[in-house]
């Protein structure tokens, strides 16, 4: 069914009321861009997808480019950031799959540039069908330019090893949180909002850092009852902003020093800052190699 002028969250909320086990395809987001409601997607989409995917496969598209706006202007920049976030959700949620609309070009749009033309709608249908019937679509449909897809062989340095695994952070935490020699780490904002991405997983398991957990203005450390430590690298003032690379590097440097001082021997983290915050994977790795 179709909901005219509806936001993506409104669409997902409506579908949640339906008792239907058939596969679900979600196509939305453009109206959020027009109505300036993109923030509610960051705040609510993960919860909605988790609920929807309990009973059926869920396919969600990336949000199409708006050719009625400058391609490198602020509107399309915001859409690219949100598409990065949607892709990150798909990569770690079970039973949720991505339909990548990057192959839609200017030729697929009307002269105005906001809506698809007849050829664009046919192309959209083709992309949806190919994704649903294709094999291994969850992996193949993730855009290759996202830093979360970097490929590295295990690298030894300073008598240690970087091991790359593909797993749900929730499962990794549950399996390792009783080890006192292990510390987890992730990026947070100074407002401790923690409403999207892997921060939600840490918040649900350990709660938000309290004032007493601050080691400095750039670093927090929570000590779990089970034994592991949980570092929060404070890289920006508010959750909706993007970090400055100098602040990111400074937080990572403080984290590295305290990790060694505390005597931890194993670090578990995702590519910190490389999805929503658009930190280059090279910057993350450079800090990691100095660890």
TrEMBL record:
Signal peptide: none annotated. Transmembrane segments: none annotated. The lineage of its organism: Eukaryota, Metazoa, Ecdysozoa, Arthropoda, Hexapoda. InterPro entries: Macro_dom-like (IPR043472), SGNH_hydro_sf (IPR036514). This is Uncharacterized protein.
């Amino acid at each position: 069914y179709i909901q005219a002028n509806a936001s993506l969250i409104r669409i997902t909320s409506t579908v949640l009321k339906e008792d239907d086990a058939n596969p679900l395809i979600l196509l939305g987001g453009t109206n959020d861009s027009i109505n300036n409601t993109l923030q509610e997607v960051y705040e609510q989409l993960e919860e909605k997808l988790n609920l929807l995917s309990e009973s059926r496969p869920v396919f969600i598209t990336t949000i199409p480019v708006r050719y009625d706006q400058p391609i490198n202007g602020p509107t399309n920049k915001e859409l690219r950031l949100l598409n990065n976030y949607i892709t990150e959700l798909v990569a770690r949620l079970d039973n949720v799959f991505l339909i990548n609309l990057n192959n839609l070009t200017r030729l697929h749009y009307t002269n105005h540039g906001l809506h698809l033309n007849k050829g664009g709608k046919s192309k959209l249908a083709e992309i949806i069908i190919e994704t649903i019937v294709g094999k291994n679509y969850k992996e193949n449909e993730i855009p290759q330019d996202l830093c979360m897809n970097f490929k590295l062989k295990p690298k030894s340095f300073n008598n240690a090893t970087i091991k790359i695994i593909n797993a749900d952070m929730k499962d990794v935490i549950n399996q390792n949180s009783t080890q006192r020699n292990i510390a987890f780490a992730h990026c947070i904002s100074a407002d401790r909002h923690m409403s999207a991405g892997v921060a939600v997983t840490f918040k649900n398991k350990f709660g938000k850092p309290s004032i007493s957990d601050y080691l400095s203005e750039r670093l927090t450390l929570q000590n779990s009852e089970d034994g592991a430590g949980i570092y929060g690298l404070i890289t920006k003032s508010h959750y909706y902003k993007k970090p400055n690379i100098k602040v990111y590097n400074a937080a990572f440097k403080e984290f590295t020093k305290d990790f060694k001082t505390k005597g931890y021997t194993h670090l578990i983290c995702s590519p910190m800052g490389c999805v929503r915050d658009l930190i280059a994977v090279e910057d993350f790795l450079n800090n990691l190699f100095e660890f």
